[in-house]
Specification:
By secondary structure, the protein is α/β, with parallel strands linked by helices. It has five helices and ten strands, in the order H-E-E-H-E-H-E-E-H-E-H-E-E-E-E. The strands form two sheets. An eight-stranded mixed sheet has the order 5-4-3-6-1-7-10-9. It has a two-stranded antiparallel sheet with strand order 2-8. Strand 9 and strand 10 form a beta hairpin.
Length: 212
């Protein structure tokens, strides 16, 4: 794999759909069972708030060189979660990657269209249906409480029900001029506190927001 391909894969993890396998490598994470119920987002956007360009492309994510493959806090983040909730599009994208499935925690694919999961992933992924509130009830009953909410539509659906506790938002210094927005329309305003902000590669700003 070329340096460019590796950089793209690392940065793609910050976007929607999120991509797995840091720098094209397989990582074994030590996950702690967190009893606190929390729904977490880790995602990237352009300066003008898009998570994919007008054609759905993600090449802009490696517009900032990352020769040392800094993961920008992803490993620390993923060790906080004990299950992942992702959408159908994210799952289909990840399953087409040319690498092993990277997670050791349960992955729940939220889709009202999929009827089944390919046998290859049946021991790794569980199909789940329903509203975000119904999905959380089911997942909590299975003993998973600290959840990584992944995929643009899934994130928006959780926000509409005010079910996101923390957003780690990484901003790539590029204007796309259009594309797929991270945030959709909400019936009511939602206030967040800025917990911390970091700069990576002297160019990329990552801010952590927590729901008030």
């Amino acid at each position: 794999m070329s340096t460019e391909d590796s950089s793209l894969r690392t940065l793609r993890k910050l976007s929607v759909p999120s991509f797995f396998g840091i720098s094209g490598k397989n990582y074994s994470f030590t996950f702690m069972q967190a009893k606190e119920k929390q729904n977490l987002v880790f995602i990237a956007q352009s300066l003008d708030g898009y998570i994919a360009d007008k054609k759905g492309g993600l090449d802009w994510l490696f517009s900032t060189p990352n020769p040392e493959q800094i993961d920008m806090g992803y490993t620390k983040f993923i060790n906080r979660v004990d299950a992942i909730v992702m959408g159908r599009t994210t799952f289909e994208t990840v399953s087409n990657f040319d690498c092993d499935w990277p997670y050791t925690v349960p992955v729940f694919v939220l889709s009202n269209r999929l009827e089944s999961i390919d046998p290859e992933y049946q021991d790794k992924v569980e199909l789940i249906k329903g509203s975000p509130t119904e999905v959380l009830k089911t997942i909590h009953q299975k003993g998973h409480y600290s959840l990584y909410i992944d995929g643009g539509q899934v994130i928006q659906s959780f926000l509409k029900e005010d079910l996101i506790d923390e957003i780690i938002l990484t901003t790539i210094p590029i204007l796309l001029g259009g594309g797929h927005s991270l945030f959709g329309n909400l019936e009511n305003e939602m206030a967040f506190n800025l917990h911390k902000s970091e700069i990576f590669l002297d160019a990329i700003v990552q801010s952590t927001y927590r729901r008030k």
